[in-house]
Homoserine dehydrogenase (Roseococcus pinisoli), 430 residues
Amino acid sequence: MNKPLKLGVAGLGTVGAGVLSLLRDNASLITARAGRSFEVVAVSARDRTRDRGVDLSGLRWHEDAVALAADPEVEVVVELMGGSEGPARQLVEAALAAGKPVVTANKALLATHGGALAKLAEAKGVALAYEAAVAGGIPAIKALREGLAGNRISRVAGILNGTCNYILTEMRLKGLPFAEVLAEAQRLGYAEADPAFDIEGVDAAHKLAILAALAFGQQVDLAALHIEGITNISALDIALAGELGYRIKLLGIASREEGGVTARVHPCMVPVSSPVASVDGVFNAVLAEGDAVGRIVLQGRGAGAGPTASAVVADLVDIARGCQSPVWGVGTEALAPSTPVPMERHRGAYYLRLMVLDQPGVIADVTGVLRDMSISLESMLQRGRAPGEAVPVVMVTHECEEAQMQAALKRIAELSSVVEQPALIRIETL
Ligand SMILES: NC(=O)C1=CN([C@@H]2O[C@H](COP(=O)(O)OP(=O)(O)OC[C@H]3O[C@@H](n4cnc5c(N)ncnc54)[C@H](O)[C@@H]3O)[C@@H](O)[C@H]2O)C=CC1
Ligand SMILES: N[C@@H](CC=O)C(=O)O
Ligand code: NA
């Protein structure tokens, strides 16, 4: 048997502790598959005293995580701290510059600096592996980069944030309030250190940027992505969506269009028959469409210690086996610059929910705006009767352009009979 591969692990939180546990619990089968064993020789984390349920005795402890890169015994650096800047970025850069392979779960870092890091890895001929960064335990990176290498991919999409999917599911099935479910997601280790990244759609955008780069061979400019989170999704809209035969999901969708690539993250209403509609709780789904293969849909747990550790260990096994792919599926010289298509050009159907005063003429005012903007209605639903008070009215449109819909929304919100900011949710037929 070959010598053990020596690891330095930075970050011993949900994922770091999960990786150490998995390497310990499945040591013999992982060794058999990798052709050699793994030995964690050095670690770094903020709190030396915390009980993480893993034995850290005998391991070298670095106060400065970046020092792991220069530790002569460390052969592979595993970065599990998080953050697109600061020590995580410095450690990954230092490790690659020192010619050491890196495994990371850090989607923020990859979505922000992935191009430059790939150049560094390429120059040194070492691996930069990140299966854990997208959709947790689902082998989404491997599926796109290796499994679909022969395809021209037209679309990649999915449920990319476990925290949001868990919140939306618990609100729908148990009627629990948003804040309570978010706190539970944090307790379960699903959420980011700053959960605003989850609920505001930023984490899903990081993952979508990574998937789009792999699918389309071009770097994706995060600043050009349309990003909306789930903070405005109400229990009322979740219930009304159900009545209409839909589920509300936070989706990331990137597709190849004439003139470039569209990439957007926002809540969507998907028909209950859609393959992503029944993907609930912390589960993620990744859907890709290739010209040869057609559509594939992968699903599995997208967050939490076990699923994420599963992906980190898979990358370690690849490194031990000597399997190394170009970081973004093509050499960095072939990685094209970003060609974003603006969101205003998106076309689709919309769910529009208004709170309107229950009085004559209101619906005519609203439909008048839609008529002026050439938006036609597919259906309408009014709930309750409360003369002089606010009642919900739902309108589902036929396909129209985003720019038209946004202009209509602005005018509708200004009507005196519309009493609060309308809810607008895009309908997707994934
Ligand atoms: N929790 C999850 O389900 C998933 C997390 N990830 C990613 O994995 C990474 C780690 O996430 P979690 O384990 O959830 O975070 P966490 O907050 O539970 O753990 C972070 C660890 O990094 C350490 N750390 C932070 N800054 C440090 C510094 N300057 N020096 C030394 N140690 C430092 C902390 O002490 C802690 O041990 C992040 O990039 C996250 O986005 C990816 C997929 C799933
Ligand atoms: N916070 C993320 C963790 C995994 O990437 C999520 O909830 O999906
Ligand atoms: Na993954």
About this structure: The pocket of sodium ion (ligand 3) is lined by residues 131-132, 134-136, 138-141, 311 (CB under 6 Å). The first helix runs from residue 14 to 25.
